[in-house]
Amino acid sequence: MTHREEFRACMKAANPTSGNYGDSHLSEAQMLVYCRGEISAAEREAAEAHLVGCEQCISLFRNARDFLEPARADEAEVTALEASHAWQMLLERVKAAASETTDGARPNIARGDFQRPREKRFFSAARVTFALAASLLIFLGALGWLTWRLWQEQQSRRQSQEVAAQLESKQRELEERLSQLEQSGGDQLKREREERLAAEAKRDQLQTQLAAVERSWQNIPVYSATLSSERGAEDDLQLHFTAGAQAALLRLFRNKPYEFPEYAIELFDQRGELVREISGLRPTGDDGALSVLLHRATLNAGKYKLRLFGQQGQAKKQLGEYGLSVTVR
Amino acid sequence: MGALDDAVIIALVDSTGGDPVESIREIKQGLNVEDNFHWLFERHYAQILRFFRRKGFDPEDCSDLTQETFVSVYRGLKDLRQEEQFESWLFAIAHNVWCDMIESRNAQKRSATVLSLEAEGETGDQRPLVARIADRGADPLTVALEKEKLEKLREALQHLPQQMRRCAQLRVVHDLSYLEIAVLMGISVNTVKAHLHQAQKALRAQLSSYFEELEV
């Protein structure tokens, strides 16, 4: 790019009035009037301001000058012969065109007429026809669209009504189900309440029983016993049964356990009456202990006296000294 | 004529003595169509032919385009409502014929030309394509300098008197001749020259550090 071209490009870019002016372009007629100077000062100023920035109108200006300027001295003259020859040719073409027109062909006027986009002020018959046709088409289109919209609205309204009816019936059905559920729920509630009352009564009963048991536990007999102690023949025996114990194992030890082949014990209550007699006891084990099992159920609460006898045949001898251990089970 | 002393007088002088409006009305009424149209043809043939010649077409094309213009005139004359606007209408037709021809030639060129990297594109950018592609990667400093240069130029232009500024813009941007500028602005060629000289001087004084060659 040369410096001049660069300056030109910058001037073009800096031109504040350059750009697209749309309908404000000058028409051919306006340009001719402008070039002839048959224009007011204000119009001239407006046209000039536009021309400075509009390449299209500058081109039209040049064409208008070329159209209006008379023959210059350096231009070749148009001779009469040339004009006559041109007229003959034109006449032939025009006649041919006229015959085409009479044959029904549409004359091609459009090419030379005011049909460039920049010319928008002239309303030709073709344009009016086109505009009317376009308007009719738009009207028909709008009518069709409106009809279609109405039909669509009717359809949608009908669908809405159907949906509403379905929803209503569904609501009724749900209400019925709800009332049934409420009724059955009431019954169930009643049953549950009754069951709860029964359970509470049972609980009270059980509590009563428990209280009775607890009271009975308080009445469990207490047996005094001194475990594994050396006792004399007249010593008291106290057995104490714990809550879960069912029996007590008594083991009696003697220094000479095999002095007698068999032994017997007698238990006396506090009144001195014999409440239990166990005979035929034999020493067992290494220590020769005599084992006696006393069941809780067979004894009442209280104090008992225990007497040990050695037996040999029919002879029976009370023994004074022995050891005793009690194991409660 | 005051300021227009140096400008070319371009008013069309009707030397044929007839009345084009009357002829057109008769043609529209179907009266003496050929004679009246012949009269209109003779009256404007040289003007239209000159118009196309000045556009730089070869003689054969000029003849064809002139024919094309008058055929369109003949066909459209019946629909012309403002007979007194005939000359403007004729110019519009000739201008459209010229535009069609230019478009047709451009279309032919587009379909036949392979784009060269050195050729000018269609974007209106005057620079070669290579330069434009290179510019896409321009560094921010260059961009900022270009922006500053443009701003300075805008400022300098704003400081010029309106008529002087317009003369400079028409000359530099649109490449109009002194005479064209004079006709366009309704001033004399000498005034245009003076304006351009003053504009160049003023712009150089303010922008010499930005533009190496500043010629208006």
Structure description:
The complex is a heterodimer of chains A (about 325) and B (about 220). Chain A is an alpha+beta fold and about 325 residues long. Helices cover about 50% and strands about 15% of the residues of chain A. Chain A is built from 6 helices and 9 strands. In chain A, the strands form 2 sheets. In chain A, strands 2, 4, 5, 7 and 8 form a 5-stranded antiparallel beta sheet that branches. In chain A, strands 1-9-3-6 form a 4-stranded antiparallel beta sheet, with no helix packed on it. In chain A, a hairpin with a 5-residue loop joins strand 4 and strand 5. In chain A, helix 2 packs across helix 4 and helix 3 crosses helix 4. The longest helix of chain A has about 90 residues. The radius of gyration of chain A is 71 Å and the shape is rod-shaped. Chain A starts with a helix and ends with a strand. Helices cover about 65% and strands about 0% of the residues of chain B. In chain B, helix 6 crosses helix 9. The radius of gyration of chain B is 24 Å and the shape is elongated. Classes of the chains: A alpha+beta (about 325), B mainly alpha (about 220). Chains A and B meet through helix 1, helix 2, helix 3, helix 4 and helix 5 of A and helix 2, helix 3, helix 4, helix 6 and helix 7 of B.
Strand coverage percent of chain B: under 5%
How many helices of chain B in DSSP terms?
9
Could you tell me the mean pLDDT of chain A?
A: 80
Radius of gyration of chain A: 71 Å
Largest interface between protein chains, with number of residues from each side? A-B, 68 and 75 residues
Structural class of chain A: alpha+beta
Give the oligomeric state of the chains in this entry, treating copies of one chain as homo and distinct chains as hetero: heterodimer
Would you report the number of β strands of chain B?
0
List SSEs of chain A in N-to-C order. HHHHHHEEEEEEEEE
Q: Shape of chain B from CA axes?
A: elongated
Task: Give the DSSP E fraction of chain A (strand runs of 2 or more residues).
Answer: 15-25%
Could you tell me how far the N terminus lies from the C terminus of chain B, measured between alpha carbons in angstroms?
A: 28 Å
Query: Helix amount of chain B, in percent?
Result: 55-70%
Q: What characterizes the major β-sheet of chain B?
A: none
Structural class of chain B: mainly alpha
User: Per the principal axes of the C-alpha atoms, what is the gross shape of chain A?
Assistant: rod-shaped
